[in-house]
Amino acid sequence: MLVLPLAALDLVFALPMVALRRRRRLTAAEITGAACTSGGVAAFLAALPPPAGIVAPSVGDWLPLLAVAAGCVCVLVPVGRRRPGRSRTALFAAAAGVMFALLDSLTKSTAGLFRENGVGTLAHWEPYALLLVGGTGMLLAQSSFQAGSLTVSLPIIDTLEPIGGVLMGAVVFQERLATSWALAVQGLGALAAVAGIVILGRSPWVYGRM
Q1: pTM of the model as a whole
Q2: What are the φ/ψ torsions at residue 152 (nearest 5 degrees)?
Q3: pLDDT tens, 15-39?
Q4: What is the distance of C-alpha 143 from the center of its chain?
């Protein structure tokens, strides 16, 4: 929950670097999008309770999550293959976002196992699932990028990956969200960040136009 929301900031850093290289100024919309994204992420993290939870969940903790993630991909990909244009791009991007969120969770679990067991981690299933999920996520992301505009796929991936990661952190790693008024702050921060991602994703620099 502490790390994954930062994944939403990639365009906040990328667009100013592109603008500097091309010697152009950011537009008012891009500045607004960057402010919404960074401000929303900051609000979400500021209201987050102190870190807690478990390092390496059991297989029983993982099974429902793996079933849901596999179910999402098994539904989104076949439907996407039958749909044209923007719909195909969006559906493939949604499947990639789910896989990337799962990849992040498996990375956390594998790293925790490695700290505890060293090379003995190779006797666990997590490293091999990490490779499979990572390869699947990259394939789905590239399929989404090839199917249509980045203005469709990037906002979806940049939104679903951190949201999915936060939910997986709560369900599998037993990390805590805020409560009471702080939860409202987190919700508003998340909405602001999503709005900012959508705005930034519409920048012409995202899909290679000057």
Answers
A1: 0.82
A2: -90, -50
A3: 888 778 878 888 888 889 889 999 9
A4: 17
